[in-house]
Sequence to fold (274 residues):
Amino acid sequence: MDHTTRPPNLLRLVSDTAALRHGGSGRAPPILGLAGGPWEHCHRDMSSPEERLLAKQRRIDEFHRCAVGNCALIVIDMQHGFLDEGASLEVPKGRAIIPHVQELVERCRRKNIPVIFTEFVYATSVPCLRGDPFGPQHLPEEMGVSLGYGRAVANCLIGPGAGQGSESAATIDALKPRPDELVVQAHTYDKFYGTHLDLALRSHGVDRLMMTGVTTDVCVNSTLIAGSTRNYRMTAVTDGMATIHDHIQDACFQIWENKFARLKTTAELLEELS
Fold:
């Protein structure tokens, strides 16, 4: 049976059964979905599933529209440790999105829309699972051990023995935050967890977020879902984020579009913010 549709005679069966329970008078209380009931329109809606999906997407787009005064741009983890050539956790496709992120940053700055940067960091004083076992590259560098993926090379490590050069936790120069812009350093993938991001956004009166950065499936994904859970209206900038594998990026988009966010390109958002 197709569980997206109701069996053809179920509504009549429910109505007849309710009438019998009331002495066969036929004056049963209105049944949801039937004439006189609060969801009468559901029964009369003859649109196709495709048409209903389009209507849903239009409503989501309307609810999430960004404008000066209600939104902020979030730039997730555009750091040397993820974008520099040769970094142990290099995301090569991340370099391709830099121009798109730059365009959005510049537009938001001109419009006085808050631009907030995040940086993933690891510290030996906060020895969470993001280091051992899930991210050994973030652990302090071990003398005499070869560099590369899966090795302890101090990637995005702060404090004693902090990562340097291509392993640095700092945001890349091409997207360098201004002195008056917030930079949120987070020890977890979710940039709301244990940070002042939520307080900063609500203090600005923001309820809509434009999401960019790396990686789509880890820190962007965790933060986007966390924002949606907090009732922020999330927009994923599809050509302003990147990860290693295209199929994982596509899967994130499909999941988000269904339940968590709307999808927009940089060009579409620039037009919206014009």
Notes: The chain has ten helices and six strands.
